[in-house]
Design goal:
By secondary structure, the chain is mostly helical. It has helices spanning 20-29, 32-60, 62-70, 86-112, 118-143, 160-168, 176-200, 207-225, 231-248, 254-260, 271-284, 300-316, 319-343, 353-358, 360-387, 398-407, 412-422, 426-466, and strands at 2-3, 6-7, 72-77, 80-85. It has a domain at 31-201 and 330-464: Na+/H+ antiporter like domain (Na+/H+ antiporter like fold, Up-down Bundle). 70% of the residues lie in helices and 3% in strands.
Length: 471
């Protein structure tokens, strides 16, 4: 049985009927990566629902849609007050939390994940670079030298939630390594998009506020060095930095990534001490054979030991892990759907669809996402395997890489975000939205079809190779 592509092994069976293999698979399914994959991919379906809702709402009642997101919302703290539109709070406030979570994922991947080893990281990093260069070049072909050239960053991004959601529908047909490859290059892609926003979409710098942000950054560094693990400390300093960065000229959401880099990646206990404590407590639960049974609520000594092990697990877990796990559901199930609801609305009746579909902005974004992404991702991955002599992940085929490249063309969330920074003219923003939706649909549909064909081909080849040949 599968739920949204996540294997469920024997959930409806009594414990004594669950095989050891099923128990191992359960453990694998609760790993850090699987937890992240499940949460983000499930959130992708909610993101799709919110996008459809935004399109329907904006076309049934455009005035209501615009009024709702433009109404003012004021946050008052003592004598200080911040007043912005509801859409602004979503785009600059909640999306900061999204970037904070992305930053935690980047830091985790660089420490212990697919980006921690240079050779392992070379393929997804190369895929991300190719997936940024080619779409930008294609956009330039259609918009170079014009006022709309500022939108070159729109097709460079990959929406990790949407792409993982589509990949999850294929379940175990696709090798686990492909999930890791897509996740790793999407995270590397996000890092590239964040750098693009910081370097190329910053109109001016206000030095005083920038110095204030640097001062808060120094405090965050000190807190990290002194192993301060209280999340409230980082929250307070993060809010202060968000204010400073937002007034410095940089986009306020960059604060999320900056703060995430200072979140400690070490727990209260080291692993040796943790293992010693756990072994001591396990010894108190030691039973001969299988005599323990269900003793937890009837044996005080066993209950205390389990509680102590739980406390030790919490102590050895790092603040980075705790914050990432705490933030993932909020980002997947609330922040990204709200962002889509606030930004995906396109009033089609107010546009000349013929002019919109053929406009250079729309065409550049559609072709950049739908075809530039898969070309760049596949080509740079292939070049890396030849130049660095790095092999593909076990079980992966080049057709699968191409399929994942098409999924990389789903740029939705980050593309919408960059489009809002690219243009001051509302009409160009609407053209960009049409291009983003069109390019993302192309990437998603073709990517799914290609991966389905690739999975069927790989299964057929595996079956053929397992059939013994006659003499």
């Amino acid at each position: 049985m599968e739920k949204l592509g996540v294997p469920i092994y024997g959930d409806d069976l009594p414990e004594d009927q669950i095989s050891p293999e099923s128990l191992v698979n359960r453990i694998i399914a609760t790993s850090a990566f699987q937890s992240f994959f499940t949460t983000i991919s499930n959130g992708g379906f909610l993101l799709l629902a919110a996008s459809v809702a935004a399109l329907i709402w904006s076309n049934i009642n455009p005035e209501s849609y615009a009024h709702f997101w433009h109404q003012k919302f004021t946050l008052t703290i003592g004598s200080a007050a911040l007043s912005h539109s509801l859409g602004h709070w979503v785009n600059d406030g909640l999306m900061t939390l999204f970037f904070f979570t992305v930053g935690l994922e980047i830091k985790r991947e660089m420490l212990v994940g697919a980006l921690s080893d240079p050779r392992r990281a070379s393929l997804p990093v190369a895929a991300a670079i190719g997936g940024m260069i080619f779409p930008a070049l294609i956009y330039w072909v259609f918009n170079g030298g014009s006022a709309t050239m500022s939108g070159w960053g729109i097709p460079i991004a990959t929406d990790i939630a949407f792409s993982l959601a589509i990949l999850s529908t294929l379940g175990r047909r696709i090798p686990f390594g492909i999930r890791i490859f897509l996740t790793a290059f999407a995270i590397a892609d996000d890092l590239g998009a964040i750098l693009v926003i910081a370097l190329f979409y910053t109109p001016q710098i206000h030095l005083i506020y920038l110095l204030g942000a640097l001062g808060i950054g120094a405090l965050l560094f000190i807190m990290n060095r002194f192993w301060v693990r209280n999340p409230l400390v980082y929250l307070v300093l993060g809010v202060a930095m968000w204010y400073m960065v937002g007034h410095s000229g940089l986009h306020a959401t960059i604060t999320g990534v900056i703060v995430s880099m200072f979140i400690p990646a070490r727990g209260h206990y080291n692993t040796d001490l943790f293992m010693k404590m756990v072994r001591n407590h396990l010894d108190t639960i030691n039973c001969e054979g299988d005599e323990c049974g269900h003793t937890i609520m009837v044996n005080r000594r066993h209950l205390d030991a389990v509680h102590s092990i739980n406390v030790a697990c919490s102590a050895v877990e790092t603040p980075l892990q705790r914050m990432e796990h705490a933030m993932e559901p909020w980002v997947a199930y609330l922040i990204l759907p709200l962002f889509a609801l606030a930004n995906a609305g396109v009033v089609l009746g107010a546009l000349d669809l013929g002019a919109a579909v053929t406009h250079p902005v729309t065409v550049g974004v559609i072709i950049g996402l739908g075809f530039g992404k898969p070309i760049g991702i596949t080509l740079f991955t292939w070049l890396t395997t030849k130049l660095l002599r790095v092999e593909l992940i076990s079980g992966a085929t080049w057709l699968m890489i191409l399929g994942v490249g098409f999924l990389g063309g789903i740029g939705f969330t980050m593309s919408l975000f960059i489009s809002a920074l690219s243009f001051s003219e509302p009409i160009f923003k609407e053209y960009a939205k049409i291009g983003i939706i069109g390019g993302s649909v192309i990437g998603g549909v073709i990517g799914y079809i290609v991966l389905r064909i690739a999975a069927a081909g790989a299964k057929s080849a595996q079956t053929s190779s397992s059939i013994p040949t006659g003499q």
